[in-house]
Amino acid sequence: MNPDSQVRPYPSRRTVLKTAAVLSIPALGGCVTSGKEDTGGAKDSGAEKTTENPLGVKADAPLEVVVFKGGYGDEYAVKAEATYQQKYPSAKIDHKGLQKVGEAMQPRFVAGTPPDVVDNTGAGRLDIATLVSANQVTDLADLLDAPSLDQPGKKVRDTLLPGVVDDGTFAGKTVALNFTYTVWGVWYSKSLFADRGWTYPKTWDEMVALCAEIKKAGVAPWTYQGKYPEYINDPLLSMAAKAGGPDLVKAVDNLQPGAWKQDGLVQAATAFAELAGQGYLMSGSEALSHTEAQAAWCQKKAAFIPCGSWLEAEQKGVAPAGFDMVMGTVPARSSSDQLPVTAVQAASSESFLVPAKAKNAAGGQEYLRILFSKQSATAFAEANSTLPAVAGATDGLTLSSGLGSVRDAVTAAGSDTFTYRFRTWYAPLAKAVDDATGELVNKRISPADWSTRIQKAADAVAKDSSVTKFTR
Amino acid sequence: MTLLQTRRTPVEAPPSPATKRTNPLPGIAMFCWAVVTALPLLWAVISSFKTDDEILNSPWSLPASPQWDNWARAWTAASIGRYFLNSLIVVGAALVLTMLLGSLVAYALARYEFRGNRLIYYVFVAAMFFPVFLALVPLFFVVQQLGLLGTYAGLILVYTAYAVPFTVFFLHSFFRTLPSEIAEAAFLDGCSHGAVFFRVMLPLARPGLVAVGIFNFLGLWNQYLLPLVLNPDPDRYVLAQGLAALSVSQGYRSDWSGLFAGLTIAMLPVLVAYVAFQRHIRAGMTAGAVK
Amino acid sequence: MKHGRWRFLLGALVPALVLHVVFVLSPYAQAFWLSLTDWTGVAGEARFVGADNYVRLGGDSLFLDAVRNNALLLIVVPLVTIAIGLFLASMLRTSSARIGQGYRIVFFFPQLLSLVVIAVLWGFVYNPNTGLLNSGLRAVGLGGLAHSWLAEPAFALVAVMAVLVWSSVGFYVVLFSAAIEGIPRELFEAALLDGAGKWATFSRVTLPLVRESVQVAFVYLGIAALDAFAVVQVMTVGPGGPDGATEVIGLSLYRTAFTYGKFGYASAMGVALFFATLTLAVLALRSGRRERLELA
């Protein structure tokens, strides 16, 4: 197995985009066209639905589970299978842990003999949008409305972290459930801040003031992964989302005219231009790869770095002992922000689905009900130092400093999470945004230029009839 | 390249009058360029023995103590060993296939008259002037439809297909210059066409085969674009692809010393082989000339 | 015997021809067709769009950046490489055979390395804080010259050019010095007797006699400059940045096809690149004799 997948449990968006695009889009051509005529699928619901058996699982129906065996291994999935077996002792369970899910599954989707559960993750996974348009996946509404396995009185739907259901919803149908949860923010070393008497700022004004202090102390206030400007985009866009609220995000994703001219975005761009203008970005950051910038940060050459929640795992062995990294949420631009400062940018991944033509679709959903139970999710979090998509799964656990801070951020955010979809919907627009932001934080364009440029790119995408449009 | 040098290097000349006048400029210029060339390479080799800390904080210093562990880590943990093996398998097989098919075509076209001879020659040779980028997208789908995407076989066949044109181009002129008397004698002895080719002409063409073989080996060993597109499975990455992935898309877990060790592992065999082959080729050439 | 002859010819030609047609000719031919469609990789959904993709190319500012950069590479890389190559080759002529041989081996090293290895290595050399170049400049008191080489638009493309030149000079030194060694010694001696200086000897004796090698060098270097994909993709910010400063056609094509899934549009880029290459080859070879290329 690729060694990297072990050390970076959360693929960065960069990797995800790349692998998804390279492998799944073309690879699915044959699969989808040949499966097109089939609609619905073999609904063999089997047994009667009861409170004990809300999905109507036939007790002796065999169950086949295919799991992506990547950074998290497949132990957690095997555990859930054991629970299933306990519940249905006569069911024969077939488990497959694979690294190339798409390669192995494509022919089986074509042949109409898919397994009952697929963890469609990793390089070479199947393109979910294409599967949806070919009616190859089960609508998981029954599962979402079924009672949770170990949280009495709650439906499965209500046990999930905010945004998880949305992330798996395509054209109005929830067809996938993501098992892990990623949050983006700004990282710092708790010990360094305690030593120097610095406090993580809640507002941007405080941030700027603190940066002045940090700089005086001889430390660069910020560094960023300059070789890939999308990293510095995240806090900028987060700040804008907090300022303008969900409406701002929606306007951006829906390519509304003038979306990038919204005040929230221009203000956020101004904030980061100021950061650069004041010399608060570590010199040379603009040419550093993510590993180089993160290593400089771990050497305490810079105080802050923007990143997603995978950072702690990625820096294992690089961060010195006692570094105690923690993630803070992006400071508020102003007091008139639409979302509270605790709001976070969050998205889920590790995508489980039940094929429409699964022989034991009910069993597949039942398996997901077990997998997404609190007990199973907690075990996963313990084993992988990663936040699962089930709310409260890490309650009561002793977590590492980074993961603990991520958990706290998620708890504090409550339902105030947001995520931009334009990155996955319109990759060329994402590149235009990255390029513009790179120029912005290198003082080569003004915030006004920044928004004009991106607006132009967004308009071009909106006008381009060859691009499939999505709305939210 | 190598072949040029060896084919054309005349007997070593006595020092020309210019050297007697002690003009320092040539010496200085050449020394400078040699430094510019060798320094980054040397730096990579030295860095492969340093700790991460030394690499980041004192790029010009020598390692306090050589970190052999970097090499071990690069070889196993970073999969350089596996990539190396993959390269060896793919390039080895493609090279054998290329030489076999290329020399057969070149020989058939050079030594046999038949209708369409010129056409076939140009069909092969024209491809040399087409940018591979033009073929890239359809090639991906051709390989995919044949079910060869991400397989050794797919890569070997594509490598071969793209190396044959140059091989034909080069060996065509080489076979033309070979004397025909021996071949005629062999035919009179009752040898078949195939036997004449394999037993008589191929051995005669050895110097050319060696030269074009080395050329092909380097080209294939260093190939990046084709595997990048056609070989998406990390387990089957070839060396150049693996190194790029480690340094670009995945970052190799901030292990710079390991990455330098990986770079060195990728560089050294080729450089060593080159220095060794220099002499070998020259011997082959002189032997050919003496005949 | 006649029968055996045909059997041999078929056996010799057919396997290679099949490979050639399947993996080389048919993709090239398909590319032209695809460039007229909006194909996104899903079978059976290619729609004929005529010249749309080509029209679109003209308005694609990133692609135009790429064209500009490739054009700059095309001018600078061959000129500089050939100038350094010729200079070193004529220096080699006057050095002793032993030392010259040693230099030739060293000069040739980069030619043996994959461009990926070279790009990774030079990425480290250019690192603004810990790289060989900047820390070397600082060490000798020239810290003022230190730059964020790959992140400043003014230097990024130059940095790429430098790597391409660095990687190819050695090969052309060897090519040119072989050509120079082919020049009869008497010509140089005659020039010396006529009292010609170093420059005069070079421009009147050496250069005219290696003209064909130089022409061949232009073609090869031009093709390399129209590519530059590996170095840019591995080494530069973005890659292709900052903000398109090092974008090249190959990179645009690769991204458009394999990240965006716009295969028709990517093919149009390929066709554009093909015509650029063709023009280059024709221009460079028109004045020269074809056979010379075969010798090389």
UniProtKB/TrEMBL annotation, chain C:
Keywords: Cell membrane, Membrane, Transmembrane, Transmembrane helix, Transport. The keyword Secreted does not apply. It is a multi-pass membrane protein. The keyword Hydrolase does not apply. Its main location: membrane. Residues 67-284 form the ABC transmembrane type-1 domain. The chain crosses the membrane at residues 71-93, 105-125, 154-175, 217-236, 263-285. InterPro entries: ABC_transporter_permease (IPR051393), MetI-like (IPR000515), MetI-like_sf (IPR035906). Belongs to the binding-protein-dependent transport system permease family. This is Sugar ABC transporter permease. It comes from Paractinoplanes pyxinae.
